């Protein structure tokens, strides 16, 4: 079976997941072509030549990013039914993130794509706050263990249980104000004096929304709020309008932290994260995989308790 994975990734998390999924699918004998939506060429021909379609995106305000919906809307209707799989990443494991694919699925259903399953991986935040290195490591190690299981199920035709959310479609529709809000807020981005004019932001913006002319940066009206410019700016010189207090700058290493670090947001969605890691562990162990205790949040709490007791 040949499939194609079209993905959008603002800051790299979704791309990381997609590459791992492609590796897993290839190991299962599936040819999996991977392509970033903003670089996609000959899409109708590629999709027509594949037995299924995979779409991957980071959850943005409980929705797929605007570029992903635009991409889906531009796809031609298929003559015969074609299976559709969705891969998504998000900073939180909240069940509400499940509503993010409703619109995408509705658009693609009209074009004869038949939804067969979606796979969700929690990855560190690229806005709101910076997850600790320990947490980013834990998330990626967990995703790496879940992806091969999900791909094995996908290849075997085992569909994951669908997670519905009451009034999800309506809620997602309201939250899509973010698409308009992002374009509006994007025009308010500014560049600080620390900028070294490396032009990374101009070169990598997925919608070519940033231009530099006559010594000035200009931010146009097609911002996706993907954070690529601000997150990867080597001088942390981009101010992201109204959301500047939520800015996160600098790539995650996804390695275990070299030194003890302070976890600043220990309470934020703690139960959801805990549930996510625990259920991942149960699933991995049940399938004969390994899932070290250090990847659980409870392991960290125990360490903290021991440290506190020793003080
Ligand atoms: C504008 C914006 C909105 C976001 N909204 C959500 C959200 O609703 N729920 C969530 O769990 N994470 C949310 N996130 C976090 C991202 O989904 C998460 O960090 C993702 O892994 C980023 O992937 P990427 O590096 O491929 O862009 C949001 C991020 C951005 C930039």
Hetero groups in this structure are: flavin mononucleotide
Please indicate the count of domains. 3
Low-confidence stretches: none
Order the strands across the largest sheet as they lie in space.
2-1-3-4-5
Main sheet: strands, sense, barrel: 5 strands, parallel
Task: Using the 3D structure, state the CATH architecture of the largest domain.
Answer: 3-Layer(aba) Sandwich
Order of helices and strands: EHEHEHEHEHHHEHEEHEHH
The proportion of strand residues reads: 15-25%
Over the alpha carbons, how many angstroms does the gyration radius reach? 20 Å
Q: N-to-C terminal Cα separation, in Å?
A: 59 Å
- What is the CATH T-level topology of the largest domain? Rossmann fold
The helicity comes to 25-40%
In CATH, what is the class of the largest domain? Answer: Alpha Beta
Say which CATH homologous superfamily of the largest domain is assigned: Flavodoxin domain
Q: Could you say which structural class the secondary elements and strand pairing correspond to? A: alpha/beta
Mean pLDDT: 94
Give a count of the beta strands, DSSP E runs of length 2 or more.
Answer: 9
Give me the number of helical elements. Answer: 11
